[in-house]
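Bumping with the actual sequence this time:
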Amino acid sequence: MSCCFSNSGIPYVDMRAPLRRLWRQNMVGSEHIEMIPSPKKKVWSAEVNGTPVEVLVPSNAVLLDVLRDKVGTLGVKRGCDLGTCGCCTVMVDGNPRLSCLCLAGQVEGSIITTVEGLADGAHLAPIQSCFAEHGGSQCGFCTPGFLISAQALLNENDSPTDKEIACAIEGNLCRCTGYQQIIDSIKGAAAIHRGEVEAAAPASDPHPDPHPEGPEEPNMPPGHAR
C-alpha cells in the first residue's frame, strides 16, 4: 500500500497499488501473462434426466456449474457454495449429492437426476404434487433440493418414519416453512408410493393442437389467433 493525496490535499491509502504492481510484474512487453494457467477443457458426458449429454467443460468444472450453464437444468439452485444449504442437491446413480461440492469429472458417465427429471412429462411426480398440496413449498428456492432428497429416500423406503425423513432432509435448509409441511408432504407422497392413496389426477391430459401448422391448415382471417 502507498500513501497518496487527493485533490483537496487529504492523504489516503491506495489499496490498489499492490495489485497494480503485481499486474506489472506479469507483463512481457505489452502482453499480460497469467500467473495461473487456465484449466484445459475436456468433453464431459453423462445421462441427465434420461437424456445423454456431451458438453465441453474445463477440467476442474464443478458439477453445479456444468448442469446449470452447459446442460441447462436451471432447477439446480446455487445457494451457499459451501455444501450447507442443500439447494443444489441432485441424484447421482440414485444417491443424493451436493453438486456444488462435486467435480463434474467425478461423476462422468453417471446417471444424474435433477428436479426437472422427476415429473413424467407434464404430469408431476407424487412428491411434487404433495409439496403443492401440503404447502411444502413457499418461496420455492430450496424446494428442488428437498424434492431430490425426498425422492431419493422414497426410492429406497416407501414407509419412512418421521425420524428417517428428518435424517434424509437434514442437509437441506428452509427459511420459510418450519419443516412440518415438508415432512407432511413426504409422508403424503410415501402413502401414494405404497398404493394407499391415489395420486392426484393431472391438471390436463395431453391433447392434439387444435390448429396445427402445415399444408392442410385452413386459411384464417388476418389477425386470427391460432
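The C-alpha cells above came from a reply further down the thread. The longest helix spans residues 180-194.
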